[in-house]
Amino acid sequence: MEIPLALDSGVIMKNERLENSQTVLKDMNKSKSSFEMRNATQNFEAIMVNMLVQAMWKTIPKSDLFEKNSASGIYEGITLNALSDEIAKGGGFGIADMLNKQMRKE
Fold first, then answer.
1. Distance between CA atoms of 103 and 42, rounded to whole angstroms?
2. Which of 54, 69, 77, 79 is the most buried (most CB within 10 A)?
3. Alpha-carbon distances, residue 22 vs 16, 43, 66, 82 (angstroms)
């Protein structure tokens, strides 16, 4: 059984972003750069929002109006990632802000 390319590329992008965020958060005590911390917490929030958006997307009834193929799957994944990034940049659910406040205290 093969993993669809869209799913595979989305998982790879999420894993890379998660690893980058984890690395920055681990090194936060050394650098204390507020820009890096904000970027890492915003990426973490984008990942969480992406999981929520994908779960919501699966509940939409599918239509036979458009052909479902690998290209449409890739486009769907890219669209959901971009939507999640924009939600997180716009303030999201406040997860990034709470993480920033918590990290500054420590």
1. 13
2. 77
3. 10, 10, 39, 21
